[in-house]
Amino acid sequence: MERPVLTQRNALIWLSLSLMLSCASPQEQAEAADEEVYALLDARREALFDRPPGFQVDREEQALRAQLAGKADTEPLNINLVQALQIAAENSRDWQDQRESLYRAALDLTLERWRFGWRPTLTGNATVSGTGTSGGDVNAGTDLGVSRLFGSGATVVGGIGVNLLRAISSGDGFDALSSLSLSVTQPLLRGAAREVVMEPLTQSERSLVYEVRNYERFRRTFAVDIVRQYYGVLRALDSLSNEYANRERLKLLREQSEALAEAGIRTSIEVDQARQNELRSEVQILQLQASLEGQLDAFAITLGLPVETPLVLDRAELDVLKQLDGADLELLKIETLMDLALASRLDYLTVRDRVIDAERRTRIAADALRVGLDLEASVNSTSGRDQPLEFRSPRTPWAFGLSFDLPVDRLPERNIYRSSLLDLDVATRREEALRDSILSQIRDGLRQARSTRSTYLIQVNAVELADRRVRGAKLSLEAGRASTRDLLEAQNSLLSAQNAATSALISFSLARLGLYRDLELLDLEDSGIQLDSASLEAANLMP
Fold first, then answer.
1. β-strands 522-525, 155-167: how paired?
2. Rounded average pLDDT over 35-47
3. CA-based, 20 to 30 A from 351: which of 63, 126, 264, 537?
């Protein structure tokens, strides 16, 4: 009589352990997801772009926006170009969207990997039943199951369960009973190809690669956009500074004209001309100031900072641009540039790979039109009463057989297959369209870079000429050989030339930067945007 007691105790232990198995808290589940996803992302980014580990999807608690939010009086924030790029990386909402998109792609991959691993389940139940006020039965049980889908298409499902039964009216103890089951299903025709079975996992693996590429390309293109806005603000600052200097010149000329008019040397018309130009400059300053403030607000939003944050940009960045020569642009070979772009552009690599995906999906859709033939085997056993976990009966039931599904009516599958052929054609057209667009970008980018460089060199000479003209007009005015109008026109020409020179310098810098971006030769580092000169040399872009 000892053995039944022992087996009942074992069954009770089984049930207790099943119920006491602690489930992870939501926070622990999130941390587990992060650990698995970050490992995937670090591995992919290192393999594709030699990125160091440390990707994080959550926004930093000490990010600059969080520090500035809610402050009534914020000190002006002085930032150079490198700092602007760093601030955008931490605070930009667009950048955060890209991080989350990349994280989700890796999260989807963990799900597909889980589908092809051993998948355990643990369930339990406890019920009391009866009729009216009379005693009934108590039933408690737990089931441990495991299943797996293999690359061959085989599905294995196993389970073991323990149940405790007791009749309340009899007053007896619990009766223990356990069950064991195992089934295997192996497709032989439709669904048996490894390519078909592994398609969800294959596509998730490739989609993660696409997202890693997309994230890297976003980092580079977004950095160029930050540079463009930064230089745009500097251009507005320079125009405002030039206008202030112009106003001071006009004010001095007006004061001189008024003094000379009182002495009878200048006419009142000349005084009015000087005063009118001075007032026009005052209006221009107000308009430029309003435009500058609007650009600073827009730039703060792009960086992800509160719009009320006072920003002060480093005007020395313009001096850095003036050191840019750009003579190497004249040596670049357009044919080699186009070959490099098609071999390096991350978005083009992804579109080209999507054609391969579309081809693979047509084969998978065609497989769904085949005959279904599955090999099935199963075994089920139940222990003796009060002998749980002991399966020794020679009469254990089992089954072995085949099942088939003839393709009698496959209209949904037929439509899916036909649609997949159209999808393949769409993917091919998109690859062709992007290829032509990239080649057009490179051709136009090289033209723009060369053209804007020549324009800048011309504008530099124009500033020197306008400055000489102003000095000559002053001397001529003092000598009585010129009128106030001549000096006013010379000063306006100088102002226009100065603004045009700054605009040409920035246009040239952005055109050059855009060309290298379209060639996928830019990289974003802690020190700012870097040109991949090694790839330039390796591609033999110059004769």
1. unpaired
2. 96
3. 537
Q: Residue 1: is its pLDDT beyond 50? A: no
Identity of the amino acid at 106: A
Kindly state the helix (H) or strand (E) to which residue 375 belongs, with its residue range. strand 372-382
Whose CA is closest to 239, among 506, 11, 435, 28?
506
Residue 232 near residue 295, CB atoms below 8 Å: yes
> Mind listing the pLDDT tens digit for each residue in 325-338?
888 888 888 999 99
Which residues, 6 or more positions from 435, have their beta carbon under 8 angstroms from its beta carbon?
342, 348
Cα–Cα distance measured from residue 285 to residue 243, given in angstroms and rounded to the nearest whole number: 6
Please say whether the beta carbons of 88 and 304 come within 8 A.
yes
pTM > 0.85: yes or no: yes
* 482: nearest Cα among 278, 490, 272: 490
The closest alpha carbon to 442, from 527, 333, 369, belongs to: 333
Q: Residue 388 has what pLDDT?
A: 61
Nearest to 230 by CA among 91, 94, 79: 79
Give the residue from 94, 212, 99, 217 showing the smallest Cα distance to 522: 217
Question: CA 145 to CA 118: how far, in whole Å?
Answer: 10
Positive or negative torsion for Cα 107, 111, 112, 114: positive
- Is residue 527 scored above 70 in pLDDT? yes
Single-letter residue type at 297: D
**Each residue of 274-325: pLDDT tens digit?**
899 999 999 999 999 999 999 999 999 999 999 989 999 999 999 999 888 8
Angle at 460 between CA 482 and CA 232, to 5 degrees: 110
What span, in angstroms and rounded, lies between the C-alpha atoms of 218 and 435? 19
- What DSSP assignment string belongs to 503-519? HHHHHHHHHHHHHHHHT
Helix (H) or strand (E) holding 235: helix 199-262
Average pLDDT of every residue of the chain: 88
Query: Which pLDDT tens digit goes with each residue over 327-375?
Result: 888 888 899 999 999 999 999 999 999 999 999 999 999 999 999 999 9
Could you give the CA distance from residue 278 to residue 246 in angstroms, rounded to a whole number? 9
